[in-house]
Amino acid sequence: MNISTLRQHQIPVRMVPRAAVPFHLLIKPVGPSCNLACRYCYYPQRDTPPGKIDDEVLETFIRQYIAAQPPGVKEINFVWQGGEPLMAGIGFYKRALALQQRHTPPGVTVSNSLQTNATLVTEAWCQLFRQYGFIIGVSLDGDATLQNSHRPDKRGNGSYQDALRGVRLLQQHGVEFNVLVVVHNGVVERAREIYDHLVGLGARLLQFQPLMAEGDAVDQGYQLSAEGWGRFMVTILRRWKKRRDIGRVFVMNIEHALAQYFTGVSPVCVHSARCGTNLVLEQDGQIYACDHLIDDKHRLGNLNGDTPLADMVEASTRLPFGHRKSTRPECQRCSVRILCQGGCPAHLDARGQNALCAGYFRFFNELVTPLRRWPRDMAGFNAWRATL
What we know:
- By secondary structure, the protein is an alpha/beta fold.
- The protein is 38% helix and 13% strand.
- It has 16 helices and ten strands.
- It has a ten-stranded mixed beta sheet.
- Helix 2 links the parallel strand 1 (24-27) and strand 2.
- The protein is globular.
- The protein starts with a helix and ends with a helix.
């Protein structure tokens, strides 16, 4: 058989296009379904019908997500969120982990992160998390009074004790976790107490998330002023310093800002000069450019459609929301632009300005002022660390 004949019998191989830039795709396996009824939820169930991603979509997602990564990528992170992602069931994640192993090429590491309210955590979940090295984010508002007031269950009962039980199980099994606190005007005066309480529970990784004025938060009258956000974060910064928790307790808002100051690269999309590479997959297969911009303007397509995932990433990076965030006139004049970069586009007000601008300025200015004596490079970082 000659070469021409061989070519006629070749089976064409369809190559999956690869993205030109690194990207993440957050997946919501049960959409907005949740066992709690947090009063400030930005993602209420009435806006998106509850449901569960089916096995076919799950495999399509995992296969395409891995295949579409840029050449040379050595680690791929899967981020599971909701709603309450544990409601998908432990069997769902076992299937997902098996699919990851099946489709991951040699030399590439897969990691998993999951955000939970911790009330459904059991021994079996902890064993799975520990075995596969999951990093768990726990949503917790502070002590029992705060948690039960703002994060009740469906029947209006408090959720603190169930969440605390979940945290204790994670600790007992050595599962790495961080605690995420939603900040709104109702907790601004409690910043010091919240910090002390969470550290007292043994939490060593903390993250403070400004309220998203979306969904139930608007209906329930929740607000966060720029002044309140700045005052809360400055209190956290000062408390972290006063307790000499540097190197012992890691506040991600602080750690990320320090990393950005000395490297020029933000570890998070909120404070990147541009965004658009953190996509979200709903349980029905729809893909959007941002978790907080779930609308037709930012819908990129369906996972089961004809558009390759790499093309959706490219389309997302071209959308205006990610380009304009750090080019606004007020940002050009700002002395802490190097850390803020305009903040999250989801916080833009009717004037097109970040509603938390003054708060970010107060926090970042207090953080960065003592650092300005050192060069913004690793030598400067090492010199600064030597003074601690």
